[in-house]
Specification:
Layout: H1 2-29, E1 31-34, H2 36-46, H3 48-65, E2 74-80, E3 88-97, H4 100-168, H5 174-209, E4 214-217, H6 239-260, E5 265-274, E6 277-281, E7 284-288, E8 293-302, H7 308-376, H8 382-417
Parallel strand pairs: 1-4
Antiparallel strand pairs: 2-3, 3-5, 5-8, 6-7
């Protein structure tokens, strides 16, 4: 009965390995293997959010041209007895023109809105690049972890085989053999979760890149270099901060537009009409028919009689400017705090990574090598060997995680500094 259970477990483990290999091969058969730079460029080219921001720029460029809109020309034709019993004709053309300062301010508003749309594109690009880099480095960590788990699987498989042989020859007990098999299955479970995490990261990248295929990473996990000129003054180049500051400029210009609307509109016009009847010309009464046209022009002002709504809109625009300015100041304060926090996170993760690189990894390798020799030589028991394996492999796993955390800290700083 016991032999049957052992065979069933071994068969189950074999099925898992075959399934894992099959899934891995299937994923690569229908995947797009990209470097980090290729992934970033593909995302910037295909992402729909970026395309939407580009269309916004085109929209405001066209809307800027509408700043010189002077409205429609009024043309009125009149026919009838407006002058005498005779039938006469009258054509009057009239055009209202906004006050020059109002048109100038409207054009400037369009220019500020175009600048804002361009800055919004930079913000969208910065956000997208950060997301792509972050997920890509997470995938690199998962890929490196997959290699480590494969090594662990081999070690625990060796441990399980040795324990089974020792149990068969009466050199160990059932507890040792069961512990070895359980630990082996635990590693297999971690491998299964790891494969799922890799596919999840690939699917997330696929969505950002708008790719028809699953995305895999061609790079290897390594320490990411720090961005140059790493100081607090560079935070002023944060794209989102510049966008909010541009919102202040737009609000300020919008206030000027509303204030200039209080000014009267200019009115210009011209007319041509007939005045059928006798007209005194050179002290002589002369009869003029409808074929004789009299012309003239008009100049005037369109003054708002009820100015309170205009003043209210101008005051509301002033409040809006104050609100956007306070919002920008608040965002800058929060951004400074986020930058300081990111620097502290970087220092913490750099110290942790340095610990693994300078001493922990060497000790982990030494522990692993010596414990394997001692266990196979019968110098230590399975408990000591199992503890040594966990310590050594745990250090190596923590090292991979330390690299990932450090890289994510660097990426966060690049994002805050707008280093696309």
């Amino acid at each position: 009965m016991s032999s049957f259970k052992i065979q069933s477990r071994n068969l189950s483990g074999l099925k898992f390995k075959i399934l894992g290999i099959f899934l891995t091969i299937s994923s690569f058969a229908y995947s797009q293997n990209l470097s980090l730079e290729e992934a970033v460029q593909t995302a910037l080219k295909n992402n729909l959010g970026i395309k939407s921001a580009e269309y916004q720029i085109d929209y405001y460029k066209e809307m800027k041209k509408a700043g010189t809109d002077i409205g429609k020309l009024s043309a009125v034709w009149m026919h009838g007895q407006y002058n005498s019993l005779y039938q006469d004709n009258n054509l009057t053309l009239q055009q209202n023109i906004p006050f020059p300062s109002a048109m100038v301010n409207q054009v400037k508003l369009g220019q500020e809105q175009v600048t804002g749309a361009k800055q919004n594109l930079i913000v969208q690009q910065n956000n997208l690049v950060y997301d792509v880099k972050s997920i890509y480095h997470e995938m690199l960590y998962q890929e490196a972890l997959k290699v480590l788990l494969f090594t662990q699987d081999s070690l625990y498989n060796d441990f399980a085989n040795a324990s089974a042989l020792r149990y068969k020859t009466g050199e160990s007990n059932l507890l040792e053999k069961t512990t070895a098999e359980t630990q082996k299955m635990e590693i297999q479970n971690q491998q299964q979760r790891n494969l799922a995490d890799i596919e999840i990261s690939g699917a997330r990248l696929q969505a950002l890149l708008k790719s028809g295929e699953l995305v895999t990473a061609s790079d290897k996990l390594k320490k990411r270099p720090l961005p140059p000129e790493l100081d607090s003054l560079q935070i002023k180049n944060n794209p989102s901060l510049k966008l909010i500051q541009q919102d202040v400029a737009i609000s300020r210009q919008f206030k000027r537009v509303e204030r200039s609307k209080i000014m009267p509109d200019l009115m210009v016009g011209a007319f041509t009409q007939s005045l059928t009847g006798f007209q005194k010309t050179n002290n002589t009464d002369v009869f003029y028919g409808r074929n004789k046209q009299f012309t003239g022009f008009e100049l005037g002002l369109a003054i708002p009689l009820w100015i309170k709504p205009n003043l209210a809109r101008a005051k509301a625009a002033s409040f809006q400017e104050d609100a956007t300015r306070k919002n920008a100041q608040n965002y800058e304060t929060v951004l400074d705090g986020n930058y300081a926090q990111a620097i502290l996170e970087l220092k913490k993760n750099a110290a942790s990574l340095n610990y693994y690189e300078t001493s922990a990894l060497k000790n982990a390798e030494l522990i692993l090598t010596q414990s394997r020799k001692a266990f196979h030589a019968g110098e230590i028991g399975y408990i000591e060997y199992l503890q040594s394996l966990k310590i050594s492999l745990g250090i190596k796993g923590n090292y991979l995680q330390a690299i990932n955390l450090y890289n994510q800290s660097v990426l966060k700083l690049e994002f805050l500094l707008g280093k696309i």
